[in-house]
Sequence to fold (526 residues):
Amino acid sequence: MKNLSATPPKKPFNSLPVWFSLWIALLWLIVFDLDISLQMLLYGLDDMAEYFSRYAEPDFSDLPRYLHLMMQTIATALWGTLIALVFAFLLAPFAARNLTPNKVTYRLAREVLNFLRALPDLLLALIFVAALGLGPLPGALALGVHTAGFLGKFFAESLERVDKGVIEAIQATGASRSQVVMYAGWPSILREAIGYTLYIVDRNVRMASVLGLVGAGGIGLALHDTLRFFKYGESAALIVVILTVILAFDYFSTWMRGKLT
Amino acid sequence: MKYLPLCWPTRNGLPPLALVISFAVVFGALAWAAPIAEINPLRLIASVPRLLSFIGNILVMPDAQYFPELFRKMLETLEMAMLATSIALAISLPLGFLAAKNTSPHPAVFHFMRTLLSFMRALPELVWALVFVSAVGLGPLPGVMALAFVTVGFMGKFFAESIEVVDAKPIEGVEAHGAGWLQVRTFAYLPQAMPDFIGSTLYILEHNLRAAAILGLVGAGGVGYDMVMAMRLFDYDRILSIALGIYLIVALLDRLSSHFRSRVI
Fold:
């Protein structure tokens, strides 16, 4: 029989307070370094209340123009998603460990997806606007390139979870690699893939509404201009339009994803 | 109809009806959207030379004198993301408990919190940054405020969802010891949901870093401002180093967070 000690075991050292205080210290340093004065924030609270009251009366007199711009925003988001979907459809099988031809293609595809994902879409839009000129087209391209990285990663991760038996069954019929991908890979993850695509559509509508800031079409430019000319009523109306459309897309995609799983 | 009849390949060899309908809807929407979004393949092909000449312009020797300044700006971006994530974490932890079906004190509170959170995350950071910049002036403060505001919406929802899926048995166990309302939440719910919390916090940190890199577009601090100015002033020797700097820091955080995530979960 094991020798049991009479004294209870020592309480383990709890390192949580140490980490917590280090974290707070780091945050304090950051606040100090960023020159954020909390005093200013506190003094500004009254001004802020007054400032936000200026948005209280939305001015919907220019609504048809806003709706047209919003339509352009949605169109940009849809085309961006299509571009992303095409890229991801081609790249994802190479980035999935169980379907990729060899290690080199796997690493290469993963790195390409990482690279696409790393640059924020607004920076890409900035670059594409400089290269292609103004309009929604560079916006759609930027959204497509950026979200292709996300979609490709999601698809690849889903493809890696495909049941081995399904893949073997298709391989046993003498299917080529592309046939395995088409008849074992994609059909097994169809629901998940549609779910991810809906999520990306949702996200792209959100981002497309600010792409206008860099001249890439959509409603963002109008919002920027009205804020710059201090037309708070019109800004409020624009925010209401954007908010409504985004919430509608959010509910639609949540509902649709609920139906799928 | 609870589930869409999705099955592919089908028995009769024809594509399933649901897929045909959804493809028709999607392509209809895309065709409708093409002229509005000015999608024009000809224009795309016609602008290839411009794209190439732009790339040629970018690929020059980087401006070495700018590097210390760039480093300073990158650090500022990282700091903004960390500060905003910490503030959002502190706010959304209690909100998450109020917005979870099983820990919310009352269904009315639950519905109210869920609606509030979805409103907070509806608008992109940049819109809030625009509003906050015109409220408190230029600098990192409005950027941090905008980031924290939006990510409270996301984090609260993520936290609430991970609280809702915790196992009920440990909670009963803790309750059986006579633990109070707050004790049940800190000693039964929180430890179980912790891995999920850490995972979503890391995801939010990554998201915030990307967002902080572009907030400078509207004057809310960070490296984005330099990028816009370099574009406007045609400082081509800076564009590539800024883009590479952002790529490097985002990729680094991506690696770090996936390392942590695999250790936690």
In short: Residues 142 and 201 of chain B are 21 Å apart (CA to CA).
